[in-house]
Structure prediction request, 300 residues.
Amino acid sequence: MMDRMAAHDRDDAISVAGLRKAYGAHEAVAGVDFAVARGEVFGLLGPNGAGKTTTVEILEGHRERSAGEVRVLGFDPGERSRELRSRIGIVLQSTGMYRHLTVREAVAYFATFYPRPRDVDATIALAGLAEKAGARTRTLSGGQVRRLDFALALIGDPELVFLDEPTTGFDPVARRAAWETIRSLRDLGKTVLLTTHYLDEAQALADRVAIIKDGRIVAEGPPAELGVDAATRYRIRWRAADGALEERVTADPTELLAELTADALARGERLEELSVTRPSLEEVYLELTAEADVATEVVA
Ligand SMILES: Nc1ncnc2c1ncn2[C@@H]1O[C@H](COP(=O)(O)OP(=O)(O)OP(=O)(O)O)[C@@H](O)[C@H]1O
Ligand SMILES: [Mg+2]
Prediction:
């Protein structure tokens, strides 16, 4: 265990080694290791019930772990230190408290918990809720409640922000606005750990992602490189003269394209519908999570 911790940079915002969490006989987190560097946006992806929220809540200090080493900004979150709490911001997967307060009152109330809060109205505006600042939170729509959650996470001007499905229920415009907010957090040097089921969101925002399945990480890396072997990174497709769809994979599309087009021209043909693509994160995700399913069935 210590060796694995030593392998992580001491200055990482988050480091996790051998993390386990059992609910009775069910092991929801079954040995997870990862590290998040300061200033990084890290995405946790995975199917419903994979163990994402459990992992995030352990890092937030909201759940006890069964085993493993965890460091958040140098602290053990299990010790629930006041200093750590003042340096992190949290969007929970589900909230809905303070229904009788207005948006501004709720944000101002949260501001009192932190030593150096951001400006209340500026934070409400950053979350895209300026028009609803005077509205009681119980009158907000689902997406607006989520924006309020966002404002509450940012009001303390945290170094590290946990966002558990921050944009679920957002309309497309609000989602893009939230992405801008998350990007501006990164520009400010903040660290962000987010979970999401929107793979385009992970691809757009995360420097690195981990895919978690049945409590284990099945792949980890920058979204563009995840689970993709360099030798098969590019896919070239075209329709052959006989109408069949042809496909080749390669590490070097320049060379392969030159060969394919030269051969076609020599035959007096065109490569109809020619395309060069890289697998999207969604394709990789579906493949990896499906493979894990098959593996489980084989073992069982
Ligand atoms: N308090 C609890 N008591 C018992 N089991 C729990 C508890 N919380 C979560 N679980 C179980 O642990 C597993 C992981 O749950 P978790 O909420 O971490 O998943 P998740 O990856 O966040 O899923 P989702 O994408 O649906 O939010 C699930 O099987 C869930 O039923
Ligand atoms: Mg969850």
About this structure: Residues 1-7, 294-300 have pLDDT under 50 and may be disordered.
